[in-house]
UniProtKB/TrEMBL annotation, chain A:
Organism from which the protein derives: Streptomyces hebeiensis
Region listing for Disordered, in residue ranges: 1-40
Protein's UniProt name: ABC transporter permease
Higher taxonomy: Bacteria, Bacillati, Actinomycetota, Actinomycetes, Kitasatosporales
Keywords attached to this entry: Membrane, Transmembrane, Transmembrane helix
Transmembrane segments: 83-103, 115-132, 162-185, 205-225, 232-255, 297-318
Biased composition (Low complexity): 15-34
């Protein structure tokens, strides 16, 4: 019906008359591409309501989690924002791949680097990733005042905080866990002892899971304090490097000045040495403290408690922070 | 700090305007209605749901367009609105379909795939409106949707808001500090000031009493003082111009302000000007600034504190119920309401430009 009326002859003075006669027919069906005048009206199909499912709060929280996790690797964002996280991810995996290649080629009996040591070894990369992505995740919403758009929807403050925290921790877990998977697969390819490797791999995963939750919380708190992305980046880097630098210097001084008992307590004051202490005490890791003076199981409980307190504290600060910015 | 003080109000379906100066409590009211900021006392319900207990259920069925800029510049309108649709609980496929539909309805086409950072203010306002409508709510709260728009953009946005109700069937609560622009868009206008109800009435009441016409004419050789001649002619025709003139504006002293009682006023003015052989420079409807409604309030306040307390209790106890709202508080707070209506005549019209 519509195709035979697409001739361009409808333009000009003849138009109104022609359209006048066509109108009843044109209105009865959703014709497309008719005469030049009738076009706009025919194309304009009216507003359609939505009667489908509304999946509610839990679904919205899940959607926010997925979106934030993808965003942490630049997925669903501009090409430019994929560059840094992807480079850091590659940098994290590269040493593992090299170790595996060497192990397979030279037929080693054991991995030259423990699973639990890998994250300590690559802590600078983890810190950089956190500094880049934590502000991306929360400062943007604050800076562009997008937060009210979320809180005017079914989700509550707790959903927002949990989704963002969960996404950041998951992103860190991917960053630190994938190299361990590479190491594990490599060790099996090199036909190392299966039971021993599986145990080490499991301990490594627990360790990086703890690290991800701890670092994620600290990163998000520092980033959420300021809507300025730059301050967030600087804050995260400063906190991680300064605390680690101070702790390792003090530990070296304590070790050198003949008070080795102080070494393990000083380790409580920086995130990475906290993880080091916990895994030394409970996950069979060898400590990277001076003289390998990591905490024993007793002191390890203190380490664990401090980690838990920091995680819960981060959560509480985030909840408090978003109570203020609500709408 | 008290943002809203004993304000009772009942809003029915349709487009309702909420007018008040900055700090009058408009945004606070929206926050309370969204269940985000609990009122210290009293109660409110939206769509039959109590805001204190069913905030989540309310927010699933209403849309909210914030007053301020709230759009991240590095994502496209489509990405943002799809995400927001999912945050409202729409499944992924439905979210994409509704986003395409909604953006088309608010007038965003090819540009919806470009990052929002490059949009004009008018386009950004449309994106903000789209994200409030994408989940097909039963009611939307629009907080100052015409902020920052030029006159043409304002008119387009107001037309769009009107369509949200007439074509989409979504009721609207829209705030503004400009009474004039809401008069033309809303079925019902509520005026609040300092957290108290000043006035609640259907727009027909408003326009009948507050439409002011500004007329400017040229002088000719035959009538050296065209303005004076027109005043005389109009008075003879039964229309009395306002005594007050506009000051400090282009054409000051030459602009006549006339109360328009209906379409026939326009005809009389046109015929009179033509009869005198004058050139008609302008004949336009003046937009009233909200200050006009507030001015008598100040006058009443000067008489004594009783003037301020009277209407407050009236609003709190009687309540303004639907279309009869103008009558209910008027019974007790009659002084305030009546004076408000006379404001333009007393002080000369102040305009919004």
């Amino acid at each position: 019906m519509s195709t035979d009326r697409t001739s361009p002859g409808h333009g000009g003075p003849a138009g109104p008359a022609a359209i006048g006669t066509d109108t009843p027919a044109g209105a009865s069906g959703p014709a497309t591409g008719a005469g030049p005048r009738g076009d706009t009206r025919i194309h304009n199909i009216g507003y359609r309501g939505y009667d489908g499912a509304r999946l509610g709060r839990a679904y919205a929280r899940r959607s926010l989690y997925t979106q934030s996790l993808r965003g942490s690797y630049g997925l669903g964002r501009s090409g430019k924002s994929k560059v840094l996280p992807m480079i850091l991810f590659a940098v994290m995996c590269l040493p593992a791949a090299i170790i595996v290649a060497v192990a397979v080629a030279t037929d080693l009996k054991d991995l030259p680097l423990d699973y639990t040591r890998y994250a300590i070894f690559t802590q600078a990369v983890i810190g950089l990733y956190l500094a880049a992505q934590a502000p991306q995740s929360v400062s943007r919403d604050l800076r562009f005042k997008t937060v009210p758009l979320y809180f005017s929807r079914p989700i509550e403050r707790v959903d927002y905080v949990l989704a963002k925290y969960g996404a950041m921790a998951s992103a860190l877990f991917l960053l630190t866990g994938v190299p361990l998977v590479i190491l594990y697969v490599g060790s099996l390819l090199a036909e190392m002892d299966f039971a021993e490797q599986t145990k080490g791999f499991g301990q490594g995963l627990v360790s990086v899971a703890l690290l991800s939750v701890l670092f994620g919380g600290i990163g998000l708190v520092l980033a959420a304090l300021t809507p300025r992305r730059g301050f967030g980046v600087a804050g995260v880097i400063a906190t991680l490097t300064i605390s680690y630098g101070a702790v390792s210097t003090l530990q070296a001084i304590a070790w050198g000045s003949g008070s080795p008992a102080a070494v393990k307590w000083i380790g409580l004051f920086s995130p990475i040495t906290l993880i080091d202490g916990v895994q030394t005490a409970f996950l069979g890791a060898s400590s990277s403290f001076p003289g390998e003076l990591g905490p024993s199981a007793g002191a390890g409980v203190v380490y664990l408690l401090v980690v838990l307190a920091l995680v819960l504290g981060s959560y509480a600060v985030l909840m408090r922070r978003y109570r203020k910015v609500g709408l | 700090m008290t943002a809203l003080d004993r304000l009772s109000l009942d809003i029915g379906p349709g487009v309702t305007g909420l007018v008040g100066a900055n700090g009058a409590g408009k945004s606070t009211m929206i926050k309370i209605l969204l269940g985000l900021s609990p009122a210290t006392e009293g109660r409110a319900s939206v769509l039959g749901l109590d805001v204190a207990t069913s905030g989540g259920a309310i927010r699933e069925r209403v849309g909210y367009m914030p007053e301020h800029d709230c759009l991240p510049p590095d994502v496209s309108a489509t990405e943002l609105v799809v995400h927001m649709a999912r945050m409202s609980g729409l499944p992924p496929t439905a979210a994409r379909e509704r986003t395409a539909d909604t953006l088309r309805h608010v007038g965003l086409y090819e540009e919806r795939y470009r990052p929002i950072g490059g949009y004009s203010t008018g386009m950004k306002q449309r994106v903000k409106l789209a994200q409030a409508l994408v989940h097909d709510p039963q009611l939307v709260f629009l907080d100052e949707p015409t902020n920052g728009l030029d006159p043409v953009g304002r008119d387009e946005m107001l037309g769009l808001i009107r369509r949200v109700y007439t074509d989409f069937g979504i009721s609207v609560l829209v705030t503004s500090h400009l009474l004039g622009e809401l008069e033309r868009t809303c079925d019902h206008v509520v005026v609040i000031d300092g957290g108290t109800l000043l006035r609640s009435s259907s727009t027909s009441d408003f326009t009948q009493t507050t439409t002011t016409l500004a007329v400017e004419v040229t002088d000719t050789d035959a009538t050296p003082d065209g303005t004076r001649a027109l005043v005389d002619a109009l008075t003879a025709a039964g229309i009395t111009p306002h005594a007050g003139t506009e000051e400090g504006l282009p054409g000051a002293g030459h602009i006549l302000l006339i109360e328009a009682t209906g379409d026939e006023t326009y005809d009389v003015v046109r015929d009179t000007v033509a009869g005198l052989g004058l050139g008609l420079v302008r004949m336009e409807q003046r937009r009233h600034h909200i200050a006009e409604v507030f001015r008598p309030q100040e006058a009443a306040g000067a008489k004594g504190p009783a003037g301020g307390v009277g209407p407050t209790t009236a609003a709190g106890t009687t309540g303004a119920t639907g279309p009869s709202g103008s009558a209910a508080p008027g019974a007790v707070g009659a002084g305030t309401t009546a004076q408000a209506q006379h404001a333009p005549r007393k002080g000369g019209a102040r305009n919004e430009h």
